Amino acid sequence: MIRNVSSIIALLLLASCGAETGPESPVADLGAGRAIAEDRCSGCHGLDGRGKTSEIPNLAAQPAEYLVEAMQAYREDRRHHSALQELISGFSEADVRNIAAHFAALPPLPPAPDPPAEGIAYREGAEIAKACFSCHGENGFSTEPGIPNLAGQQPIYLMVSTQEYASGARGHEVKEEMLAGLEQIDLEKMALFFAAQLPPRREPPPFGNPAVGEPLTASCGGCHGARGVSHDPVIPSLAGQEPNYLVSAIRAYRDHERSHEDMITNRSDEDIENIAAYYSVQ
Questions:
Q1: pLDDT given for residue 26 in this prediction
Q2: Which 3-state string (H, E, C) describes 119-151?
Q3: Is the Cα torsion angle 204, 206, 212, 216 positive or negative in sign?
Q4: Which of 65, 91, 167, 267 could crosslink 271 through cysteines, CB 3.0-4.6 Å?
């Protein structure tokens, strides 16, 4: 009996000695991972692992297993991003482990800093500007015939114009009343907001011919810029402007209802409509 028990124990010991053990996980090289990340990843994810825009994720202190899985998913076309797929396809398995280990070892990122002062001014300008939307359209893009765009306009020109309306110098009681109570800094913030807007492209108006109007704008481009995009902060842009407003304004200069020594005075109504049609679709 004792001999049988000893035999069984011996067999169990042999079996345990012969059992296979699982492979050890490869050890990541943090230095190698840091070198690759600084060379290939930092352009988007920063040296500290912070995404450089709100659309780019932070990688600092993310779990290494998650980062490895994410990179493998890009490589295997289970995630889609052409730039990342091309980048990661050139990494070896060791590179992927090392990069993941590097980012996982970085300290957690502190909260993003408060927005800069100019961001606050822009948001405050947007609130002030809402009072103008009922006439000039949302974000200053006018769809009302005869009402000018404010979107994308030169900011200093807008500041001067609103100051003149506020003071009564332009003789518009409704605007003067609307702007009453606003400080100079409020007008500047509002102008900043409107100047930062990009107006959508207009459809051609039902009058005029943009192709015919283009050569007629040669005398206008010296002040208002090529295609009506002004590079002088005190001269308004005409590109994308509401066409009926342009017709009305140019006629007023021609007929001396508005005064400006450099404005055209020898254009027919047909010429003016063609000029307005050209500028409105730029």
A1: 82
A2: HHHHHHHHHHHHHHHHHHCHHHCCCCCCCCCCC
A3: negative
A4: 267
Rounded to the nearest 5 percent, the helix, strand and coil shares of the chain are 55, 0, 45
Nearest to 273 by CA among 249, 237, 240, 239: 249
Tens digits of per-residue pLDDT, 171-219? 888 899 999 889 999 999 999 999 999 888 999 999 999 999 999 998 8
d(CA 91, CA 70): 13
Per-residue pLDDT tens digits for 43-54: 999 999 999 877
The structure tokens listed for 222 are 């010296």
Residue 2 has pLDDT above 70, yes or no: no
In order of their start, the domains of the chain are 30-105 (1.10.760.10), 116-199 (1.10.760.10), 201-282 (1.10.760.10)
Distance of CA 70 to the CA centre of its chain: 27
Q: Which tokens sit at 255? A: 């007929």
d(CA 66, CA 62): 7
Lookup result for tokens 């005409």: 238
How remote is the C-alpha of 142 from its chain's centroid? 22
